[in-house]
Amino acid sequence: MRASTVLIAWTPAECAHTANCPALRRTAGSVAVIPWPDDERRASAYARVTGACDEAWRMASPEALATSVFVVFNAMVLRDGVNPLTAHANLLDLDEYRDNLPADLRLQRAAPVRTATVFDWRPGTAF
Questions:
Q1: At 19, is the secondary structure helix, strand, or coil?
Q2: CB under 8 Å to 111, separation ≥6 — which residues?
Q3: Residue 90 and residue 88: Cα distance in Å, rounded?
Q4: pLDDT tens figures, 10-42
Q5: What is the Cα–Cα distance from 20 to 105, expressed in whole angstroms?
C-alpha cells in the first residue's frame, strides 16, 4: 500500500514501564499501519501518529514520501525504543519502504515481532 494513504502509528517502548502513560501499555513498543481515514479510530490507541492525516504528507513527492518513511522508522527505533524488527515487519506493508530496501530484506517479515514487543535497547549498548 502507498504511504500517502495510511497512518503510521506507534507507542514508545518506555510506556510499558512508566506510570505516566498507563493507557498506552497495551501498545507499548508496537507499530501499526492503518488505512486513512481511520474511521475505526484505531490510531487513538497509540502515542504517536503520522502520515496521511497530514495534508503535506499526502501531497509529498514520491521521493519525499520515501524519505519520510525512513525518517519515521529511525525515530521509532532510535528515539522511542521500538524493536527494529517490529518496525521493519510492519513497514514492509508500505511500498515506499519495501521498494527501497535491498532485495533480501524485502521478505524478512518475522511473524513473532508483529505483536507489541518491548525492546529495551538504549544508545551505547550492544544488540
A1: coil
A2: 89
A3: 5
A4: 999 988 877 677 778 889 999 999 999 999 999
A5: 36
Report pTM.
0.82
Cell of 53: 492525516
Q: Give SS3 for 45.
A: helix
Check residue 33 and report its DSSP letter: E
* Residue 108's pLDDT band (cuts 50, 70, 90): low
CA distances from 104 to 64, 77, 101, 118 (A): 24, 21, 8, 25
- HSE, CB side, 13 Å, CA atoms: give it for residue 33: 22
User: Would you state the cell numbers that stand for residue 54, as one nine-digit string?
Assistant: 497530514
The β-bridge relationship of strands 31-35 and 6-10 is: antiparallel
User: Cell 492503518 sits at which residue?
Assistant: 34
Q: What is the DSSP letter of 9?
A: E
99-114 core/surface letters (b: 16 or more CB in 10 A; e: else): eeeeeeeeeeeeeebb
